[in-house]
Amino acid sequence: MTQPYFWGMFVRKKLNKSGIVSIQVLEKIAGKSTLVKTVGSSSDPTEIEALFIKGKQLILALKGQTSLYFDKDNEEQLVNLFFNGIRELSLVGPELLLGKLFDQIGFGAIKEELFRHLVLTRLCYPASKLKTTDYLFKYKGLSIDVESVYRYLDKLNNKQKQQIQNISYGHTLQVLNNEMSIVFYDVTTLYFEAEQEDDLRKTGFSKDGRHQQPQIVLGLLVSTGGYPLAYEIFEGKKFEGHTMLPVIEAFKAKYKLEKMVVIADAGLMSNDNITELQNKNYEYIIGARIKNEPKSIENQILSAGLKNGESIAIVKNESNRIIISYSDSRAKKDAANRKRGFEKLEKNITKGKLTKRHINNRGYNKYLKLEGDVKISIDKEKYQADAKWDGLKGYSTNTALTKDEIIENYNHLWQIEKAFRISKSDLRIRPIFHRLKGRIEAHICIAFCAYKIYKELERQLKNKKSDLSPQKAIDIAKTIYKITIQTNLSNTMHSRLYIDKDEQRQLIKLFDL
């Protein structure tokens, strides 16, 4: 029987077990039929036909248009009508998911649409600003000149950067229930696709292995949980140990914080840094160089005979302690690393690649020694003696926290290492192609915001007990499109999400998109 269709609406006769026929109006959307209304029920054939006609009339009333009739012989006509009516196919998933988080954090207070586009694109298609404009045109239909992007970066750096950081801080404070007593600090280097140095971009020790390219040093402060708090950039040859106090001091003064525990890696903490922290009444937990401690403390460490999971506290003076912990898994890793370094030295000696300039105390070169005037060999006794330190880890602190609390808090330092890893890989913060200092800072600010949204996505996925990683959720969002069609019956545009996978439906349901 021919049934009246109007873009998915149709009338159905449904035979019930009782023998009574129900007349229903349904709408088919994305392959799924949804009940619009039950017109009525009857077992009388004449009344059934009357109800059927009433169902047709209901469709006309709902749509306010003349009905179109199709049967299976005219299927191709219906298909052509649909495809000829398509006016737009646009990627909307990233805006639905990441845009929602953007607004929840509060970044919507920045009224520049370009800011929103740059941050969200950094999350789903991290690339140069030129490629970003190509992406926005291809997938969002936005025609944005790259020069307008550069002009906006100048405005962002000059007028909006502080507001953006304040928004991020306020949201993080809310997430952490107004608890901001512990902060983590670390640095990394970001290199440039350039050859010439300037006042900011200079060659230096590169954590990316790009020692010949100009770079900057990026200092990052994060909270418990790894939420970004503040950042600062320094010239490329700046000693990383001299970057921490300026960032921490500025952050503490800006938000009027009275007490803070600073947690950092041993590489950032010179004796001068520790003295300055103490003079400014900061508490700290840092990685301790336990092999460099005085003989009296070394004896206490090695004589403790710690077993897996055990720890001890050693008092250095009235305000400082060293916490020592032992782990079997760390011992295996330390031993494997030592062996790998030893074998590399042996290989290089055999090939004649080591000279007098390699005799220093860096890394595993400390096992080298000179014999006579020219011969280099490995000090195997020193190598074997180092085994006694395998599995031991030290933490220096002036806090009153218990040793378990100190170890637990220090172990959260991996959050900042994760922040750098995500920024460099998923968000591709480097290499940097900008030349002007203000635009470099604006580029870092965009990445800072993108990482904040990434962390909020991670937090909400965890709270919703989802197995999805943030990157997987973003990848799914990048497959969600919107189709907009217009029939030849009116000027009305009709839009629907194109959803054909369970993972898309689950993401939409999970975040109520």
* Biggest β-sheet description: 8 strands, mixed
User: Helical region count?
Assistant: 16
Helix content: 40-55%
Instruction: Identify low-pLDDT runs.
Output: 1-6, 196-202, 204-211
Strand arrangement, largest sheet?
9-8-7-10-11-16-13-12
The global form is elongated
Rounded to the nearest angstrom, the radius of gyration is: 32 Å
* Helix/sheet category: alpha+beta
- Average pLDDT rating: 80
Euclidean distance between termini CA atoms: 39 Å
In terms of DSSP E residues, the strand content is: 15-25%
Find the count of extended strands (DSSP E, 2+ residues): 18
Tell me the layout of helices and strands:
Blueprint: E1 3-5, E2 9-15, E3 21-29, E4 32-42, H1 45-63, E5 68-70, H2 75-84, E6 86-91, H3 93-105, H4 113-124, H5 129-140, H6 146-175, E7 182-191, E8 215-223, E9 228-235, H7 244-254, E10 261-264, H8 271-279, E11 283-288, H9 295-303, E12 311-315, E13 321-326, H10 328-350, E14 368-371, E15 375-378, H11 380-385, E16 392-397, H12 403-411, H13 414-424, H14 437-463, H15 470-477, E17 481-485, E18 494-498, H16 502-510
Helix pairs in contact: 3-4, 4-14, 6-14
